[in-house]
UniProtKB/TrEMBL annotation:
Signal peptide: none
Organism: Pseudonocardia saturnea
Full protein name: VOC domain-containing protein
Limits of the VOC domain: 7-123
Pfam family, any one: Glyoxalase_6
Ranges that cross the membrane: none
CDD domains per record: VOC
Length: 130
Protein backbone atom coordinates (compact mmCIF):
# COMPACT_ATOMS: atom_id res chain seq x y z
CA UNK A 1 0.00 0.00 0.00
CA UNK A 2 1.35 3.40 -0.91
CA UNK A 3 -0.30 5.08 2.08
CA UNK A 4 1.94 3.08 4.42
CA UNK A 5 5.07 4.43 2.75
CA UNK A 6 4.52 8.14 3.35
CA UNK A 7 4.90 9.53 6.89
CA UNK A 8 5.07 12.96 8.40
CA UNK A 9 8.58 13.82 9.52
CA UNK A 10 9.41 16.65 11.86
CA UNK A 11 9.22 20.44 11.57
CA UNK A 12 12.08 22.37 10.00
CA UNK A 13 12.81 26.00 10.86
CA UNK A 14 14.84 28.23 8.53
CA UNK A 15 17.47 30.28 10.36
CA UNK A 16 20.41 32.53 9.50
CA UNK A 17 22.66 31.48 12.39
CA UNK A 18 22.62 27.71 12.90
CA UNK A 19 24.71 27.69 16.08
CA UNK A 20 22.60 30.38 17.77
CA UNK A 21 19.37 28.64 16.71
CA UNK A 22 20.64 25.24 17.85
CA UNK A 23 21.55 26.72 21.22
CA UNK A 24 18.16 28.38 21.64
CA UNK A 25 15.95 25.49 20.49
CA UNK A 26 17.96 22.77 22.25
CA UNK A 27 17.73 24.73 25.52
CA UNK A 28 14.08 25.67 24.96
CA UNK A 29 12.94 22.11 24.28
CA UNK A 30 15.58 20.15 26.25
CA UNK A 31 16.96 18.58 23.07
CA UNK A 32 20.50 17.91 21.87
CA UNK A 33 22.21 18.54 18.56
CA UNK A 34 22.83 15.28 16.73
CA UNK A 35 26.31 14.93 15.22
CA UNK A 36 25.07 12.05 13.09
CA UNK A 37 22.24 14.00 11.45
CA UNK A 38 23.87 17.44 11.07
CA UNK A 39 25.91 19.16 8.36
CA UNK A 40 27.31 22.66 7.65
CA UNK A 41 23.89 23.92 6.52
CA UNK A 42 21.70 21.80 8.76
CA UNK A 43 21.23 20.82 12.39
CA UNK A 44 19.01 18.03 13.65
CA UNK A 45 17.84 18.26 17.24
CA UNK A 46 16.96 15.02 18.97
CA UNK A 47 15.03 14.02 22.06
CA UNK A 48 16.71 12.11 24.91
CA UNK A 49 15.58 8.84 23.30
CA UNK A 50 17.35 9.80 20.04
CA UNK A 51 14.19 10.58 18.07
CA UNK A 52 14.72 13.33 15.52
CA UNK A 53 12.47 16.15 16.71
CA UNK A 54 13.35 19.45 15.01
CA UNK A 55 15.39 20.43 11.98
CA UNK A 56 17.21 23.72 11.57
CA UNK A 57 18.12 24.73 8.02
CA UNK A 58 20.35 27.64 7.04
CA UNK A 59 18.19 30.12 5.16
CA UNK A 60 18.89 33.53 3.64
CA UNK A 61 15.20 34.45 3.42
CA UNK A 62 13.73 36.59 6.19
CA UNK A 63 11.16 35.11 8.58
CA UNK A 64 7.51 35.79 7.85
CA UNK A 65 5.80 38.17 10.27
CA UNK A 66 2.64 36.03 10.24
CA UNK A 67 3.56 32.61 8.86
CA UNK A 68 0.89 30.19 7.79
CA UNK A 69 2.72 27.35 9.57
CA UNK A 70 4.42 27.75 12.94
CA UNK A 71 5.39 25.77 16.04
CA UNK A 72 3.05 25.42 19.02
CA UNK A 73 4.82 24.61 22.28
CA UNK A 74 2.39 23.09 24.79
CA UNK A 75 2.02 23.45 28.55
CA UNK A 76 -0.72 22.11 30.81
CA UNK A 77 -1.51 25.14 32.99
CA UNK A 78 -1.47 28.93 33.02
CA UNK A 79 1.27 28.91 35.68
CA UNK A 80 3.43 26.72 33.43
CA UNK A 81 2.76 29.06 30.51
CA UNK A 82 3.88 32.10 32.52
CA UNK A 83 7.02 30.28 33.70
CA UNK A 84 7.93 28.93 30.24
CA UNK A 85 7.39 32.28 28.53
CA UNK A 86 9.72 33.90 31.08
CA UNK A 87 12.31 31.13 30.56
CA UNK A 88 12.14 31.42 26.77
CA UNK A 89 12.56 35.19 26.97
CA UNK A 90 15.67 34.64 29.12
CA UNK A 91 17.01 32.24 26.46
CA UNK A 92 16.69 34.93 23.77
CA UNK A 93 13.09 34.81 22.55
CA UNK A 94 11.31 38.11 22.00
CA UNK A 95 7.70 39.32 22.03
CA UNK A 96 6.86 40.36 18.47
CA UNK A 97 4.20 42.94 17.71
CA UNK A 98 1.12 40.76 17.43
CA UNK A 99 -2.30 42.31 16.84
CA UNK A 100 -4.23 39.11 16.10
CA UNK A 101 -4.86 37.89 19.65
CA UNK A 102 -8.48 36.87 20.37
CA UNK A 103 -10.27 38.40 23.37
CA UNK A 104 -9.06 35.76 25.86
CA UNK A 105 -6.13 33.92 24.24
CA UNK A 106 -4.83 30.56 25.40
CA UNK A 107 -1.53 31.26 23.66
CA UNK A 108 1.36 33.70 23.82
CA UNK A 109 3.21 34.57 20.61
CA UNK A 110 7.00 34.74 20.83
CA UNK A 111 9.80 34.84 18.27
CA UNK A 112 13.05 32.88 18.34
CA UNK A 113 16.37 34.78 18.04
CA UNK A 114 16.01 34.63 14.24
CA UNK A 115 12.53 36.19 14.32
CA UNK A 116 10.56 33.00 13.61
CA UNK A 117 7.27 33.24 15.50
CA UNK A 118 5.93 30.40 17.63
CA UNK A 119 3.26 30.04 20.30
CA UNK A 120 3.24 28.81 23.88
CA UNK A 121 -0.23 27.29 24.34
CA UNK A 122 -1.93 26.71 27.69
CA UNK A 123 -3.88 23.48 27.12
CA UNK A 124 -6.05 24.10 30.18
CA UNK A 125 -7.57 27.04 28.29
CA UNK A 126 -7.50 25.76 24.69
CA UNK A 127 -8.86 26.38 22.21
CA UNK A 128 -8.88 30.14 22.06
CA UNK A 129 -12.21 31.73 21.45
CA UNK A 130 -12.09 33.92 18.45
Amino acid sequence: MLADMLRLGFPVVGVTDLDRAAGFWSSALHLRVSDEWSSPGWRTLTAPDGARTLGLMRSASPPQAKPRIHLDLLVDTTDEQVAEVARLLELGATRPDWDDYPADPDFVVLADPDGNVFCVVDLSRAPSSG
